[in-house]
Amino acid sequence: MWNLSKLRNNVGRQCTEGESLRIHEWRRKEKNMGLKFGKVLHLGIVVRDLEKAVKIYEEELGIGPWKIESASPFFDDKLVNDGVGLNIRTAIFRGDGYEIELCTPTGPGVFKDWLDQHGPSLHHVKLESDATYEDVTGMAERVSGRKTYLDVRWADGKPLVAYADLLEETGLLLEIGADQ
Predict the structure, then answer these.
(1) pTM for this prediction
(2) pLDDT, tens digit (0-9, with 9 covering 90-100), for 136-145
(3) CATH of domain 40-177
(4) Residue ranges per domain, the chain?
(5) Is the distance from CB of 155 to CB of 78 less than 8 angstroms?
(6) Whole-number CA gyration radius for the chain
């Protein structure tokens, strides 16, 4: 571990070759450390039966109340992976600084594909970060070589939300909002 305060306090004096190399290495690592993420803000879970899942969460796990809604009206005019609409119903529990979203597919799309391929399971996670939408989607594409798993845009084409695809590398679909 480098004593950076000692190195910084000696600014103006000639560094030894070893100190110079350590400073250079520290700056390189600092530049490439990547984006910073914090606590979990949101868990998205795909389920087969929304009402049954909500009942279990409330009665057996003590997690509730839930707001059950159809996501269709909000997403009807949104561009989803270059198509229109998002075929899901959702139930959302808002806890102390986090939320859990249960999603069940109502037709074809990424949530139906997920359920068919993986069964009911954790689908996506949103983590606290001050990284921008472009930073996160760009990082995920650079790391994985893949485009976003889900890309939702306003009717005018501006980004709304995306799931950065880091499944193979980390087991994670990372939700990022354009307002971040």
Answers:
(1) 0.77
(2) 999 999 999 9
(3) 3.10.180.10
(4) 1-33, 40-177
(5) yes
(6) 22
